[in-house]
């Protein structure tokens, strides 16, 4: 799984940072989370490609969704024909539709706007997208990408010792089916180890620190948490519905995540967020202050 940060600034772009967006590439699928103004140019700069299947919006503040109008037009000019799904917190569908219609001419491909609610998973073949409640102004959610458990490791030496020929029977055993060989029943537990966990990546969008985030991020491989302010601006964070870097780190520590990536930096810190990174690392050592173009690979834990 590969995460590419396309925009890491809060509220407005800076010289070095665009506003909020990131992509997640998983097994050939490309999905996007938030789409601030100028996102399509960032996609070209950082080589993500435009074959996005879904765009998930955490909320419809301008710095998180205004880029979608131009992005859809660019896709149309590239002769895209595949449909695209736009997911937005329930009750904000009409606002998103209005933004899309600002572009004028309709695109040739189908654009589906889908309202979502917290704790109603979007199911895919081998993973789920799980929206969760966040604490920001207006309707807002975060998203957890939760892969299903994977089969355990297949033991070929044991299979051979049991007289099971290599081929389709190995495949059946690896997928949990018992097989019969020479009148003997062999169950998968004989040759397949315990199930292995999938990966969990959590993106908060804009939010105050909240128990719902800690719950969604329990044991996550990567937590991407906003850190709009430092503790020197803690009062402002409360007033605007945002988090400090230290608070993001406290969430990461309490949730037992493996890694924390900070994003959504106020222009006050955007050109040099090292102070925010230090603030977070004093609480949670495995912290990275993201920057536009940063690529994070999320391996399987047993890789």
Q: Please give the alpha-carbon distance between the first and last residues.
A: 12 Å
- Counted beta strands: 16
Which whole number gives the mean pLDDT? Answer: 96
Task: Tell me the fraction of residues in β-strands, as a range.
Answer: 15-25%
Measured on Cα atoms, how large is the radius of gyration?
Answer: 22 Å
Shape: globular
The CATH topology of the largest domain is given as: Metallo-beta-lactamase, Chain A
CATH architecture of the largest domain: 4-Layer Sandwich
Number of domains: 2
Query: Tell me, what is the CATH class of the largest domain?
Result: Alpha Beta
Looking at this structure, what is the CATH superfamily of the largest domain?
A: Ribonuclease Z/Hydroxyacylglutathione hydrolase-like
Helix-strand topology string: EEEHEHHEHEEEEHHEEEHEHHEHHEE
Strand order of the largest sheet: 6-5-4-3-2-1-16
Structural class: alpha/beta
Helix proportion range: 25-40%
Total helical elements: 11
Question: Which stretches are poorly predicted, pLDDT < 50 over at least 5 residues?
Answer: none
Largest sheet: 7 strands, mixed
Characterize the structure shown.
- The structure is a single chain.
- The chain is of the alpha/beta class and 303 residues long.
- The protein has two domains: 2-150 and 196-297, Ribonuclease Z/Hydroxyacylglutathione hydrolase-like (Metallo-beta-lactamase, Chain A), CATH 3.60.15.10; 156-190, no CATH class.
- It has eleven helices and 16 strands.
- Helix 9 runs parallel beside helix 11 (274-281).
- The radius of gyration is 22 Å and the shape is globular.
- It starts with a strand and ends in a 6-residue tail after the last strand.
